[in-house]
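Why do we care about 3D structure at all? Because function follows from shape, and shape follows, mostly, from sequence. That is the central idea of this module. The next example makes it concrete: a single protein chain, its amino acid sequence, and then its structure expressed as tokens.
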Amino acid sequence: MIGPWNFPITLVVHPAAEAIAAGNRVMIKFSDGDVRTGEVFAKAIAKHFDPSEVAVVLGGVELSAAFSALPFNHLMFTGSPGVGKLVQKAAAENLTPVTLELGGKNPVVVGHDAVLSDTAVRLAGSRLANGGQFCLGPDYVFVPRAGLDELVNKTQQAFVDFFPEYATDPGVTSVINEKNFDRITGLIDDAIAKGAKAVLGVPEGDHTALPDRSTRRIPPTILLNVTDDMRIAHEEIFGPVIVVFPYDDIKEAIAYVNHRPSPLAAYWYGDDSDDFREFRRCTASGGMARNDFAVQIFLPDVPFGGIGQSGMGAYHGKAGFDTFSHKRAITNSLLPVPYSVQSVTFTEEGLSQTRKLIASVLDEVNTRLK
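And the structure:
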């Protein structure tokens, strides 16, 4: 298991438990983005598991590369598509099967029948989860043109209601490091410089205090008028920023989603309408939820995984047990002659025995059918 930095414990413990349940020994490469957490985790695992059963290794990029190159029976990686490609390439040298849980730009479509006040609150909450550093987080939203202003205003207010003092509230999750802080603010700046409009989800008094590089806090931001020449239209945001587009016909949203790599999740707010069914039928995503955020990951018996650029393979529940298992066929022959009959000459006695065997099998089939 190679884990990510955004949920460093959950996203190695969960698949490791399923692998252990399937009879495996497990090695965990803990994220090098959470050094102190990794040290605590490694000590805790060592108290309860012999290293021949579960081992935790800590280190940076060079160790990660060496880890990926080991001849495992199975390798699971959770992280970005870019690093996922490197992991799969290293595993290919040993023909090691891989499960890749990656990310992507997850779309949200607001139906014409959606309740915008409720949608705005859920949308704001989902974008703020873990400071936006969530592979299932909403990245961009399509809303009916007539409801654009209302959704933007109510989402902005929902951001403020969640954290009235965003700059100092201890409940706010900061961006993990300065590298990612600079990347996210760079996406915003690039978009604004090319004509996008930013709506900040903080009180006006915090407009000058944020973003703050010392605390790595970026104000919740809604971006409008985003075009394809902006970096944010193509890069996964992974922060408290969301892009909103208006649409007139559901086909516009479907075409936009389908011209981009398949996301890990897609979201719909509204009824089980014809538009929803067309969106569901005509797009591909790892999973989908209607009228809520990330519900698909919390149902223990529902397989979780990506498709295309957002990953391959699945785990959670029985799917995880199967992923980390090998279904080996074991057979025993009762045939009176070899099964491979191409090079065998039947004797009359052999033919007679075979006919009797086939007849008995047919009788058994007929009895079971009745």
